[in-house]
Amino acid sequence: MLMKFNTKTIHGGQEHDKAYGSVMPPIYQTSTYAQSTPGGHKGYEYSRTHNPTRNALEKSFASIENGSYGLAFGSGLAAIDAVIKLLKPGDEVISTNDLYGGTYRLFTKIYEPFGIKFHFIGMENASKIETYINNNTKLIWVETPTNPMLNIIDLEAVSKVAKKHQVLLAADNTFATPYLQKPLDLGADIVMHSATKYLGGHSDVVMGALIVKDKELADRLYFIQNASGAVCGPQDSFLVLRGIKTLHVRMQRHCENGKAIAEYLQQHPKIEKVYWPGLKTHPNHEIAKSQMKDFGGMLSFTTKGNSYEASIRIVEKLKIFTLAESLGGVESLSGHPASMTHASIPQEEREKTGVIDSLIRLSVGIEDIDDLIKDLDQALK
Predict the structure, then answer these.
(1) Pair 250, 201: CB distance under 8 Å
(2) pLDDT at 366 over 90
(3) Is the pTM of this model over 0.90?
(4) Three-state DSSP class for 375?
(5) What is the per-residue DSSP string for 281-320?
(6) What is the Cα–Cα distance from 380 to 194, expressed in whole angstroms?
(7) Maximum CA pair distance of the chain?
(8) 310: Cβ contacts below 8 Å, ≥ 6 apart
(9) Which of 66, 120, 67 is nearest to 92 (CA)?
(10) In 240-278, which positions are buried (b, 16+ CB within 10 angstroms) versus exposed (e)?
(11) Which of 88, 129, 195, 266 has the fewest CB atoms found within 10 Å of its own CB?
(12) What sign for the dihedral angle of Cα 124, 127, 131, 135?
C-alpha cells in the first residue's frame, strides 16, 4: 500500500511481531540464535550481522527516505566511516567546506593518511564542483542545510554533475530530516543521518543511518557494516524506532518555533546576522524553497562586535536553552561552534566558512515559543 510520509513514520516497513502479534517490535536483547542444524536458522545467526529489532528500524529508515535499503550504525560517524570504506587509496572526494567538525576530522585525520584525497569547497554554486572532478574522483559529500552556517546546496544540480561523471553522491540529511527533504528523490545515491538528532528526537541515544536505492551499493555497505562491526544494539534500535513515530509532529513544531525565533533575532538590535534558510535574505532561499517542505528548527546568529567573550556570556545566561553538544531533541539547545562542535577545524579554515568567534547555534525545541523568546531576551540584555 502506498503511504504518505506521516503514515510511513508509524507504519513504513513495519509488521506485527510474528511470535505474539506485538504491535511494537520487541527488543531482541540477544547476541546469538539457536540453530537446528548448522545453517538451520530463521534468518538470524549473530546479532552483529542481523538482529530483528535493528532490521525493523532499518526498514523504517528506508521507508521514510523513499529508499530500498536501510542500515543502522553505532553513531553518525560510524555510518560516514562505512561510506568512506567504499573507497581505496588514491581515490578523491569533493566535500562541502562548511560541514560538521566530526566529519572533517574523520576525513582529514583518519582517511587522508590512508591516501584518500579530500577537496573542501563551497558548494553554493553546483557548477564549481565540476572543476575539481578528475579520473580519481569517486564521491561527492554534501550537507544541506550545512552545519552550522545553514547554507543550502542544490541537490538536484549536484546530482546532475555526479551522474555526468559517474561519481557517487552522498548527502547528510541530518538537519532537514526526510520530513523536509528527500535527497534520494533529488538524485543522491546515499543518504546519511546522525539518527542521534531528529530521528531519535529525545537526546537519549547515539546512532547513525545510511539509506540507498541500489542493491549492489547496499550489498557493499551491508558487507562493510558486518565486517567492520560498528552496529547499534537492539535497545537503541527500539528507541529510534519509537522516536521516528512522532518525527512528523515534532518537526512541524520545530519549524514553527524556528521561524518565530529567526524573525525575533533578525530585528534584535544586538544581532549582526541570522542564518536560517527560511529568511528571504538567505542567499539560497529560493533553492531551499524548491527542495524543502519547510525550513527546520536549526539556526545560527552572530552578535554585533564579534566578541568571543560576549557570546560565551549569552550561552551561559540562557536558562531554557541548554548549553550542550548535539541537536534535534525536543528540548532547545544552544552551542558555541568555535569552541564546541567545530573546535577540531583550524581557526583559519572555520572562519573562511563563517564560523567566527561570536557565532551561536540554536537547536530550537518544541517548548512554548513565548518562553523561548523570553529566555533569549533576558540572555541578550
Answers:
(1) yes
(2) yes
(3) yes
(4) helix
(5) TSTTHHHHHHH-SS--SEEEEEETT--HHHHHHHHHH-SS
(6) 31
(7) 74
(8) 303, 358
(9) 120
(10) bbbbbeebbebbbbbbebbbebbebbeeeeebebbbbbb
(11) 88
(12) positive
Backbone angles phi, psi at 275, to 5 degrees: -110, 105
pLDDT tens per residue, range 247-290: 999 999 999 999 999 999 999 999 999 999 999 999 999 999 99
| C-beta separation of 61 from 70 below 8 A | yes
Domains 7-244 and 247-379 share a fold: no
Instruction: Please give the Cα distance from 105 to 110 (Å, whole number).
Output: 7
Q: Please tell me what DSSP assigns to residue 18.
A: T
- In the CATH scheme, what is the code of domain 7-244? 3.40.640.10
Q: Please name the fold of domain 247-379.
A: Aspartate Aminotransferase, domain 1 (3.90.1150)
Domain ranges of the chain: 7-244, 247-379
Which residues are known catalytic residues?
48, 100, 172, 197
Residue 341 confidence (pLDDT)? 84
Residues 6+ apart with CB under 8 A from 33: 41, 42, 44, 45, 46
**Strands of the chain, DSSP E:** 69-73, 92-96, 117-121, 137-143, 168-172, 190-194, 208-212, 271-275, 298-303, 322-323, 333-335, 360-363
For residue 327, the Cα-to-chain-centroid distance in whole angstroms is 10
145 backbone dihedrals φ, ψ, rounded to 5°: -60, 150
- Return d(Cα 153, Cα 145) in angstroms, integer: 7
Does residue 86 contact residue 218 with C-beta atoms inside 8 Å? no
> By C-alpha distance, which of 107, 177, 188 is closest to 142?
188
Please identify which residue in the block is written with the cell numbers 519547510.
294
Q: Which run of H or E residues covers position 228?
A: helix 215-228
